[in-house]
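Input chain follows. Return structure tokens only.
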Amino acid sequence: MSNLGQNVYMDIQPSNVVSTGKVSYRNGNPVIQFIIGENDLHLMGSSVRFCGNIQFLRDSSNTIQTETDGNLMCIDPKIGIYSIIDTLTISSQVHKSTIERINHYNRFMATYMPLVSSEKEALGHLNMTALQGANIQLQRTEVVNNTNGSSTNSDNVLNYAGSQFCINLPCGLLSGRNPIPLSQQNGVGGLMIEIQLAPDNQVIFGDDETSSGITDSFYELSDLKLIAEAQVVAPNTSVGDTLEYNSIHSYFNSVNSTNGILNFQLGLSNVLSAFVNFVPSSFINNYGRDGLNTLPLLNSGDSVAPLKQVVFTRAGIRYPLEYNVNTERKDDSRVKYADPQIIKNFVNTIKPYYSNDHLQLTQNTTTNDLPVVSHLVAQVGSIFGVGVAYDMISGQGVSFQNVNFGLNLDSELTTDNPNAVYLFVKNKSTLVFTPNGVQVMN
């Protein structure tokens, strides 16, 4: 009997995990590698899931946190387990060519997740699978303080440590609608998926804006695996084919003045949208701060530096908005909320604003009036960014192959407080594969 058209369910173990099965950035295991071998299967990219367990420990003696401890460990509730992924790389297993690489992946997800999911989803299935939470305190008590499988919980009979997770990996290749051919003859030649872990002090931060008592804290992963679904196909005698997908590209810069001018040579031919998110540079890799927060520009002392004007340019000319975006703050210093046009354009970069009914955005998460402890704002925390969509109709994008992408930010950033700027660009890419190799056309 023919197996053509039948589904195959994969359960793949990491190819580079140590004998203990425990992985942590602290102990010198910053990369997790999965290999999906070359064969006559079509991989369903949207079915790929990264699964395992995570436990948060306060020190080298493997102490698990309780609410009575001082300076409690926290993680960003907007993204949960995604906070541990610093870089996601997908390459051909046979040809070793990189197909897609997203640097600062956790920063990308810090914007992506709250713009495609609602608060109810964060409390429901995403709470179970991605360890997301509706606020930092809930996140801490449910995930960071979880004692499952630990010696401090003698009544627990479960054989795993910490919290279980099972997440998809949003990216261009795996989120596409078309199945991914794994054969070498007319496919990608198998896939190698690498997850580079983020430093402990980027994932974990204290709840009192200091690093006292948690400078030795770390997270530890175990029972890791990749699961996926594929379909059996007939061996194809043809040679070569193509696959289109929307790839994600990341860039980094910083601003430290009232007139922030950013220029990037993207080298991309089919740009669909672009957005930036911000965080003070001093927050990055700092146990005292949430380095994955998506805050407005901040002056020293954590006071917001509201935007007064935003201009997007292409080759130095205003594009695609042929005007300066003047915020309400420009004319009235009493305005405490983010400008609606800025937010609308920002949401559009992920999903068309008119059809996006899964959002965690509220007036509390976009306010210019942050509390003193900036990472303990209401609900999931600050959700802020600036972006623009270039093509939401034809899906062909706009060429930045030989011209610069520009962003001018006129703000109230008047103190010496560098703010990191992470730029993420969605581009329509074409993957060309032959028996001799694969090539990505951006």
